[in-house]
Amino acid sequence: MIKYQPRDLDRITKNVSTLIEDEISRAGLIFRIFSRVKTDQSLNTKIISKGKNYYDGETKLIRDAIGIRVILYFSDDVPIVYNRLKGFFPFVEETIDKNEATKFAPTKLNLVFKLPTTFNKEFKEIIKSKMVDDTFEIQLRTVLSEGWHEVDHDLRYKCKKDWQDHSELERSFNGILASLETSEYAILRLFEQLSFRHYKAKEFIPMVRTKFRIRISDYDISEKLEILLTEDFIRDFFKVDRIELLTKIFESNFLLPLSLNNFIFLVNYIFIKEKEILSITPSELIDSLG
Fold first, then answer.
1. Is 33 left (phi over 0), alpha (psi -120 to 50) or beta?
2. What are the CA-CA distances from residue 124 to residues 7, 121, 128, 136, 161 (Å)?
3. 99 has a pLDDT exceeding 80
4. Rounded distance between C-alpha atoms, residue 279 and residue 73, angstroms
5. Are 98 and 69 in contact (CB under 8 A)?
6. Mean pLDDT of the chain
7. In sequence order, what are the beta bridge partners of 164?
8. Mean pLDDT, residues 103-123
9. pTM, to two decimals
10. What is the per-residue pLDDT across 125-141, written as a single tens digit (0 to 9) for each?
């Protein structure tokens, strides 16, 4: 039997969560992060339920003693964070549900990574079992689907018999997800329309806010930079692909505060390359992107 106190893993869990939080925050994405540690009772129950021969201590292991959930506010941020995390920690495996086009059900996107080497020894000293791997699981969810996943997992997946002979209610339950998925898509389209309206109205700051949908710490523009925001530059700025931009930030070593000044410099350096703006771009920003 495995024995330990969940609080013994708190330090590792909090440190790994902080690494993830700091990395996602670099690009200004809007998100929330939660973590949990499985109790020894939960691990023992899982081993018993799977059968003593399921976990062989070599290839079949328990890999979610530590679980971290990242809740993203916009659905198009999920693949961006997914791709970044797979290059940030040593990747082990993933579980991605591919639902049928005509069937609505929660989409599971779970990633398993090896713990950073600085925590391996501490983890193995706490959980002394060959059946538990020194890994952790990250679940990626959108804010609208988060509640659905909790309800579905606890009140349907774990108690399937409760739903037998009640297919019409289960169809209604599935319809909830359909409405959430539609709402997520509609929100993205709404922001696209709003940002275009601000662009046409020559409202630069509202355009930036609604097109890129990231946390910008300071919206004040320096007088020197504001003079250089010509109509052509703003047009090119509006054409920048949000996903491509955020991906390039993650691929760089960019660590500066995401003020509006820095954001303009950053977008210009990567995509537009307007010469006068390049000439006043801080060298530390250029170095971080190089």
1. beta
2. 15, 5, 6, 13, 38
3. no
4. 36
5. no
6. 90
7. none
8. 84
9. 0.89
10. 999 888 899 999 999 99
Q: Strands 66-72 and 135-142, how do they pair?
A: parallel
Q: Looking at 34-38, 63-67, 167-171, 253-257, which range is the least confident one?
A: 167-171
Determine the residue type at 257.
P
Q: What is the mean pLDDT of residues 20-29?
A: 98
In the chain, what are the domains? 6-171 (3.30.460.10), 180-289 (no CATH)
- 215 pLDDT higher than 70: yes
Name the token pair of 47: 């081993």
Sign of torsion, CA 232 243 34 289?
Answer: negative
Tell me the residue type at 238.
F
What whole-number distance in Å separates Cα of residue 59 and Cα of residue 210?
Answer: 47
Lookup: tokens for 141? 């969810």
pLDDT tops 90 at residue 250: yes
CA atoms within 13 A on the CB side of 237: 32
Helices (H), the chain: 10-25, 40-50, 78-86, 117-126, 143-155, 167-200, 204-212, 223-226, 231-239, 242-251, 260-267, 275-279, 283-289
Place of tokens 């964070």: 81
**Radius of gyration of the CA atoms of the chain, in A:** 23
